[in-house]
Each structure stands twice: as structure tokens, then as C-alpha cells.
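Run folding on both entries below.
>entry_1
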Amino acid sequence: MNIIHHPGDKEKTAIIDSLWSHNALYHPVDITPLIISFTDDLGIVKGGLIAQTWWGTLEIQYLWVDEEFRGQGYGKHMMEKVEEEARKRNCHMAYVDTFDFQAKAFYEKLGFTEYGSLSGYAHKFCRHYLSKEYL
């Protein structure tokens, strides 16, 4: 047994692929990545969203908007786009997590509701888990 402090793709891929091979015994694996981004006039990425869909679910992993573009609707627009694509992929729900200093209220405005939380990150932050069902 080894502790790997700087794992490469080999280790990560072996573990993830093996887990999903096991899961496939119960239901077909259909993980599909989904990324949305936008750039400024110089082509520099100023915001983006990284997600994936699987088993009828949209999993939002990362959402970031550069400070100078915040409050202008970019985050909301990316969320609308990703949810539109998720529905095309027959997703019936979505989930995301966010820290208390990040975007909990943002997700709630978009119809997400908190289903759990975990305090104690860095001994001062709370992580919120939110979900949304599609009709």
C-alpha cells in the first residue's frame, strides 16, 4: 500500500475506471463531460463551468467567473446553458456543492434547495449541498 502525494493520470484513471466498472454491474455507465466557458476580447478565459452528466443527473463540479465580470449575468447564463444541455441528455435532476463564502444564494435563486451541509472546513467554513429536480 502506497501513499501517492502527486498522483498521475495512471493512478487516477485506474481507480476511477475500476469503480465505474463495478458500478456498471448495476446500471450502464454513461458519464459525459460538459464544459462551458467564455473569454474576453484577448481570448483569455474569464469564466467557466465544468460539469458532467451521468445516470440522469447533472453534476456541477466547478463554476467560476472572473471578478471583473461578476454581477453581469454570466454565471446565470452558464447555468441556464448547462441545464438546457442536461435536459437534452435526459437528466431529471442536478446537484452542486458550495462553501458559505461562495455562491449558495446564487444557486438558491436558480431553484436549488439545500439537502445537507458540513461545517468545519479550515475550522471556519461550511460546505452546502444543493439539488434541483427537473419536471
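>entry_2
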Amino acid sequence: MAQGVGMAELAYLGDAVFELLVRDMLLQSGVPFRDMSRLAKNYVSAVAQNAMYHRIFEQLTEAEQAILKRGRNLHSVSRSKSARVSEYRHATGLEVLFGYLHHEEKFERLNEIFELCIKE
């Protein structure tokens, strides 16, 4: 794991990294500004990230799967009001993975995984 950085910190970082990737994707796709926030929620919600977690899991390395699982098991103080606890935990696992990859400067892999996440 990233030296000196805990799971909660990686989740915090990963949340921001994931949202930035989503915003950049929407900007690149030419979505009108007035629709960006509404469409971003389709990607950054705990429910959506839970689905992504399950969609990409088998395509990850064993080490990446281990990071997802450790992040999923993180007991956080906050909870989502619009998602079940299990969905929220899987979303946190995904955020930990994104935070880890960014912190370790594995940007190419981070982008590959993001593409897997948003693939319909």
C-alpha cells in the first residue's frame, strides 16, 4: 500500500480523482454545461460506483483486487443517504483504488481502469 497514507486518505483522494476524470470526460464529449452536473451524478453516485466495482473486478490484477477489497472494508464515519451500506462500501473500495493509483503515479493504469468503469 502507499507508504504513510491510509485507506481513508486514499478514498478521499480517489473521490476527487474519479470526479475529475468524469468531469473531463463530460467536457471532452461536448455535453452542454447546463447538463454536466446532472450527468456527472450518473457516474459519481455510490450506486453507480458499486456497479462499476462489480463490472471491472475480474479485469483487475490480484493486487488491484486486494486494494478494492481493503477499501470496501473501510469503516467510514459518513454514509450515503441514497445507497445501501453495501453499495456505499463498494463505491469506497473503487475510490481507494483510484486514490492509490494516483498516489503511486500509475496514471496509464488509472486511465485504463476508468475506461473500464465507464464502458457500457
